[in-house]
Amino acid sequence: MGLFRRDGPVVFERHAYGRRRARSVPRWLLWLLAGIAVGAGGLFYVQEEYLPPRLTPAESQRLQARVGELDAERQRLQAALDKASAEAKAAQGGGERLAAELADARQSVERLRADLALFDEVLPPDPRGGAVAVRAAKFANEDGRLAYHVLLTRERKGGKPFAGVMGLAVAGERAGRNETIDLGPVEVSLAGYQHLRGTLPLPAGFAARQVTIRVLDRPGGTLQGMRVINAR
Predict the structure, then answer these.
(1) In a domain, 48, yes or no
(2) Is there a contact between 166 and 185 (Cβ–Cβ < 8 Å)?
(3) Sheet of 132-142, strand order
């Protein structure tokens, strides 16, 4: 028996090695790769044909800058709108307040008119019955001055207001002697009534006792009303 002798015949398989080397690519992998290619091509086609063109980096930056400008403008306009709305509300509130004050003033004027009408009825008439009536008056000595408050009324209330002067002839005492001095004139302008208030200087040491009120149409002119009132 030889060294390499075998009992049976040796059979060579000529195609076994070739089958291992020629193993094919799996079919699922081919389908996957084909699907990827078709999808990419379809996406590119849709982008090129139907979608807006893609922006370059420079165009994108300009677009973002423009968006920022528009947003800033929107904020500015919103702030202006808010300010205008606040001012409109304030003006409306001010108008309502002024309307309320005007209504109160009108009511006050009506009350004053009613009071004046009542006073006109209650106050004693001027006994002399001149064109201008001296309805009431009050005089007082105050530290070397004569304080006066005179109410004049006019019987003829329509037409042009009366314009004239009021003169005061003050009778009193100074250093034990009786004297009479003239004070004024005080301007008078009345359509229906007028209150005259103020003070006039007296001579040193003079004490007023009685005052004669004369209403004239002008200094040294025609007498329109007259009355004598005691002073305190």
Answers:
(1) no
(2) yes
(3) 132-142, 145-154, 193-201
Domain of 153?
132-230
| Number of domains present in the structure of the chain | 1
Q: Report the SS3 class of residue 75.
A: helix
Cβ distance 126 to 182 under 8 Å?
no
Which of 218, 123, 132, 202 lies closest to 169 in space, CA to CA?
Answer: 202
Give the three-class secondary structure for 219. Answer: coil
Residues 196 and 166: beta-carbon distance below 8 Å: yes
d(CA 138, CA 29): 125
DSSP state of 231: B
Neighbour-count burial of 152, counting CB atoms closer than 10 A to its CB (0-12 exposed, 13-18 middle, 19+ buried): buried
pLDDT mean for each 10 residues of the chain (232 residues): 50 49 67 73 62 64 72 82 82 79 80 66 70 90 94 75 94 94 92 89 95 94 93 90
CA distance 150 to 166: 10
Domain CATH for 218: 2.60.40.1710
pTM of the model: 0.51
